[in-house]
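Recall the central idea of this unit: under ordinary conditions, the amino acid sequence of a chain determines the structure it adopts. In this exercise we apply that idea directly, starting from the sequence alone.
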Amino acid sequence: MEISDKIFQEKKNTPNINPLSKVRAIASQQSNQRKYIFKCREKELEIGTRTYIMGVLNLTPDSFYDGGKYTSLDKALKRAEEMIHEGADIIDIGGESTRPGSLSISLEEECERVIPAINKINKSFDTIISIDTTKSGVAYEALKEGASIVNDISGLKFDEKIADVAKEYDAALVLTHTSSYPQDMQKHTNYDSLVDDILNALRDSVNTAIEKGIDNRSILIDPGFGFGKTSEQNLILLKNLSRFCELGMPVLIGTSNKSFIGKTLNAEINERTEGTAATVAIGILKGASIVRVHDINYMKKVSTMVDAVININ
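Accordingly, the structure predicted from this sequence is:
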């Protein structure tokens, strides 16, 4: 099944209207309640009613923001509980750093880091768990233990079998754009047309997922802030985020504390909260349905305020 190029072109040529109206117009076709029902296994989210928060839980020693903080099972469980209390709708658990320059680890090591935590969190809390991985073997083990979403930064480019595993468990996919593997992604920042190239790459990822049998109501797309993009390119992506609504899938963004914010504000890693808040607010106004963040409490307030403005009659 292909996303129609004709429809894509027609949408591209439509008048410049509120991007949230585009998203909700697409969403309204999905149910009698005029809400887009995003499906991830037995759980559902009503896209278009409010912004959903995906909280980041890195069980790694070397992630750029919180590496080493939650490597023990007790600390991971406590942080998950805190995030749920602060308003996280989804907990995204990762066992391999994907920061620019990072090296891959083995499937066995990645599983050792994430699977016990997924098992424990799934048994302890009623929440949606996402596994942040590019390996189908890790995705399989995570879904077996109760994860509902596979967050693949490669958009099925590194391991297409992730879609097969997700299909087996009726799980959802986050399809993200990256230009290359983390170890050399920042050497691949040349694009013929930044937004068009990334949009077309994501269309290919969506088509691959659908061909593998994934329900189109179980796909999120992410333009991949920080993955093979310069600081300036990240700003351009954010400014043009509404273009990604043309694919008809809910848009997820992950700008939290990333280096382009630091460069723009001349801010160290622990000084990027306000910059992150600005990108979250702009992203929601430009059509993002889900924001992936580290500081749930703060960004929940930001998203609630933006949603209130969007939804006021």
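The domain at 5-311 is CATH 3.20.20.20 (TIM Barrel).
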